[in-house]
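User: I'm curious whether this sequence folds into something compact or stays loose and floppy. Could you predict its structure so I can see for myself?
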Amino acid sequence: MIDRESAQGRPSRDESKNIEKTPYSASGRELMLAFQAGDSSAFDQLVYRYQKQVQNFLRRYLRDRDRMEDLTQEVFIRVYKSRERYKPIAGFRTWLFTIATRLALNEIRAIRRRRRVFSEIPDEPESDSPSPFRSAEDHREENPHERTEEKELGLLLDRLIDELPPNQKAAILLSRLEKLSYKEIAEVLDMSGSAVKSLLMRSREALRSRLKPYFEGRPLAPGQDNPAQSDS
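Assistant: Here's the prediction. I'll summarize afterward.
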């Protein structure tokens, strides 16, 4: 659970009680405006309402539970510190996911930089040890005879989404997982609505192309070229 102690200090007993007075029916925008006006309990309500959504998005994007928790904390610290910059013309959820997506993109870029540095280190003799960069999904025991076809397809789709370029992956997750509109995704990714449509179209075409062998009954080769990797 995120608390304000990380951003400013331990809340007082009175502030902790005030959360009960904030209407649960208030929208995210109304809660943010109340927080801007000095109602610190509104921030607690925002965390309570949106923390799980941010965690789910970052978990799917990063595939790293520890970093997901760290970045979720950072998202709400930034909400706290940036409260005066919030403009009511923007929906709070869109603004929140703008913060979360930019932090996630920065994290992915940092990981890729570290991978490039690592790749420059001379290779060790071949080993059966798993790569430290494989995602947790890759370490799951894979036995097609013990899984349903639906679960197998879901795992494959998750892996293929992971392989998309960062912006495409963000657009797909914001659309598919968070159900954001084209307009909202455009605000999050700071691009036009038509650019978002094009981005999502390329992402879906790349996924369809990669899934085609699965539906034709042929195994998907681990080294098979991914059309999405040429995109940015």
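Summary: Residues 21 and 163 are 45 Å apart (CA to CA). The two ends are 35 Å apart (CA to CA).
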